Every structure is written in C-alpha cells, then in structure tokens.
Amino acid sequence: MILNKVRKTIKKHRLFDQGDRVLVAVSGGPDSVCLLDVLVKLSREWELTLAVAHFNHKLREEADKEEQFVSRLAGKYGLSFFSGASNVKEIAEKRGLGLEEAARHERYKFLEEVSSREGFSKIALGHTLSDNVETFFMRAVRGASLEGLKGILPKKDHIVRPLIEVTREEIFSYLKKEELLWVEDSSNKDTSFLRNWVRHRLLTLIKERNPSIEETLGATLQGLLWDWLFIEEEVDRALDKMDYRFENGTLYINLSNFDFHEAIKRHALSKLIYRFFYPGRSGVLTAAHIEGVLGIMRELEGSKKFSLPEGIEAVREYNRLRIGPKNEEISEPEVLVTGEGIYPFGDYIFEVKVGDFSNIVTFDKWCAAFDAEKVAFPLLIRYRRPGDRLLIPGVGRKKLQDYFVDEKVPRSERERIPLVLNSKGEVLWIVGYRQRSDLKPEGKRTIYIEARRKR
Question: What are the binding positions for ATP in this chain (predicted)?
Fold first, then answer.
C-alpha cells in the first residue's frame, strides 16, 4: 500500500525526473529506514541512482552506534555512504540558537555540501504526513500565517519528501511487514521539545475525538498548499512592481507604490524579510511579527519602529520602510580642525582650505564657505547631540531634531550626518543639508570646506 501511495506522491508533485541521482538522508529512525527501502524498490521506475547520507549531531551517547547502523544499512543495499558530524550543542551555544534549530542547520548544510560535491540532483528526506500535522499544530500554537500553516512542502527546489502523504502508523506497519530494523531516538520521548509535546500529548487528546485526524488534516493541508502556491505567484508579480533595494545589510522598501491587497502585502513582506535576513529558514516569524511591521507601515506621521527576531528591526521613516540590524550607539570621536588640511571623519573625508574663492559662484550641498573674519579656527566635526541648534535668519535657533523632522530626514540617517561647529559649540554646517547663511563670505578671505564620502 505504501509503495502505491508514494508512487502517486512522486507523480503528483513531480518529485523525480528520469535518471536523477538521489542522496537519501537516513538517521536510522523508522521514517528514514522506510524511505530508503521504498526508494530502492521504486528506483527502477525512474532509473534513480541512490546513495545514503547520515549526519551525527553528537548529542546523545548512542549517536555513534546509530551512524554505524546506517553505514551497515547502506552496505546491505549496496549503496555509497556519506557521513558527517558536528558538535551541535557547542554551535547552538555560540550562535545563541536552540538545539533543534542548530541541529537542523548543521544537518542541511552537510547534505547540501555532499550533494554539491558528489553531483546529486535531489536530496530525499523522510518527512511524513504525521510530521506535517505536528508542524501545523506547532506553528498554530506559536502563531503563524498561511505560509507557516501550509505545512511542509513535498518539494522545494532539489529537496523532495516522498513520504509526505504517509502516516507514521503506516510506516510501522510497513517496517513490520518487511521485517526491517531501525534505531529508536531516545530524545523523541522528551516532551520538553514542542514537537514531542504535540505528538505525545496534544495529538493523543485530539485522536480520542477524531482517530483519523492525520488523514483529515492532511486533506486540509493539501488545500492550504494549493492556495499558498497561487498566492505565491501573485506575490512574485507584486515584487516585480515594488521599489525595494538591499544594500549594506539593510532592506529599503518605498511605500509610495506598496499599494496591494492586504494578503499580498503580508506575503510579500514576509518573503522579503526571510530572503534577506533568515534565508533557508522557516518558522522564525510569527503572524504577530508581520502584523507588527504592517502596523507601523500604516502610521502616517513621523518614524515608528518594530523589533523582529535576532536583533533585526523594522523602521518606517515617512514613505520608506527600513529593515536591518538595530542601530548601535555611535561613538565617533570628535575631530578638531586647526587649519588647512585633510580631516577623515566617519564615512567622510573633509578638505579645508583658506583663501579667495570669490570665483566660485555657487556651492553644492557637500561644500560650505564661511567668512574668515566671522569664523575662526579651531573648528569641530562631530555627530549631533541633544540640544544642538542651528541659527536660521528670520526663524531663530532651531533644534536639529525639529529641523530633521521638517526636512523629513529618516531617523536612521540623522545619527550619521556630520556637523561642523565653531569653538563655542555653535552649529555652522549640517553636512549635506544646510549651513549658517549669516556667515557666508563677504570679503576675499574665505574658509572653504568640502566633504567627500570615502570610497
């Protein structure tokens, strides 16, 4: 029965092409042992070339014995065997990850490395319908969007899951019938892990009311998957129309043309955030995270921010959304300008000259000129501080905070704008924006300052 079911799954989702070279991930547990045996029996129909891969997480005492078991299993079928190992616990602690996430990351990295090095066209994993149902409840408990609730994909790029429509009960029946041995992972009984809690407690209760919950929910998940695939096509069209860019580790989205259906907005936003900040991962963002970002996008005035996992922050700055690592406190030293010369500061290089510049009719925003009779050295270059003001004729002394708000300068940029001040601490020039107009040259002796970005 399983063979026919898997055969239909392969055809329905086009998991294999004729002549595929398939790397089968085998832990030694019941699911992966069943997967390997089934693929060996179906391999002739698709002319598949199979090999076995096993990753040792070094988390349990029996891990080495499990690796030996899988090695013997590969030998039984006459298949090539590839193994890898990492100290997952140490990696999790270093990166601040949970054990499950760190283990998954290291395991997938190993499989991808072997697949690329040895020229495999597909990687087959042993996820089952039971796993899919458990994943649905895990994500529902945490809070998830349609993207999360759709469950585990039968196929994603070159990764395939032939057992995704087979229940764990069917797998045990198959193993018993075929007299196949497997190893038991002792950690699967530890209900401190969310998946095990869902499997052994939540689903046990639900099955008292509906013993066929896996098959019932399997049909629901199939429907959700088709809905999600349709929305994905619409999201891709929307992304082609959106104005966004990713540079220096930060994503910028122009909100002026972000006028889509609410469902498209949610999925487009989620897709971009995952693509640039959590690539190759799932389950990092909850529905609350996406709603939080959409919430600040709906605000019309000023700047708003919302925190995302792992130190990422979304900030709406007028008609722009900026997503990236949270800004750290800037502690750039002051630079004292004592006369003519070159003065590096932050991302800029300042060139200071003194002389007759009356032949220069206009200055761009990266140049400033002051009457040397009104402005004297030393000058100071630094970033803004609370209370800084700029004297504007006819207005008076205006706080830089208010000036930036009026000019709609994004909050993230305000902290990186250099200021040039005199020895009294008065702001003479907001670099790239405005200088004191009452200090412009009237005589022939001028202090000329040019700011250039470092390359």
Answer: 27-32
